[in-house]
Design a protein that fits this description.
Low-confidence stretches: none
Structural class: alpha+beta
Distance between the termini: 26 Å
Order of helices and strands: EHHEEEEEEEHHEEE
Radius of gyration: 18 Å
Number of strands: 11
Strand content: 15-25%
Amino acid sequence: MDRVTGLMWQQIVDPVNGTFDDAADKCSRLNLAGHQDWRVPSRVELVSIIDVSVTQPSISSVAFPMTPSDWFWTSSPAAGDPSSAWYVYFYFGYPKVELRSNLFKTRCVRTAVPPAVAPTREPQYDVRPTSVRDLGTGLTWQRMVDPDTFDFVAAQHHCAHLKLDGHDDWRVPSMQELVTLVDERASNPTIDSTAFPGTPGEPFWTSSRFGNASKEAWYVYFNKGSALYGLHKAASRVRCVR
């Protein structure tokens, strides 16, 4: 049971791989812990249980023992491609898109405690001239990003010194926070262009370091919305959050 998200997760997964459709069927038939309302998690839900501080697998071994370092399906379809859908690769912990015919693992989930603010699509954001508040997560985002690029350390410094809308507590988002901005209905950039106009389909830094590596960190590439990792010295964009 995740006390933050209110989601209840299947702890030990079925060792048998299946297609995207197989995953949906498997969860719909699951009878576990006295519940029958299990389903395949969305992209954002599955990303929420990634532990970016570890690898192979990138998940808590205490909460989720015997998790294979494998690919896991989500219920989120790929924008503009009915033959593909999102998955999370728990070897390193990154979300990406692949063909639905691939054979991946499935970890089912159910909503045990409805969130205080129900996730919505219409409207999802409270859009202001210089900032955007996500009504689902409660996070407030910098609306227009700086045209400059930064290395990892400079990105943290930039957000820490940002003063916007009368606030000075801005920071670089974690990997899990930044992927919540990926709009699965859009492509290049994979983001709501009304709420965040002018967003380039480029990599954006997160504050999440890659495993125990001292010189690598996660970024989200907004051309397709996938999360990857790279060297701290790489030049990328940054969108601050509070």
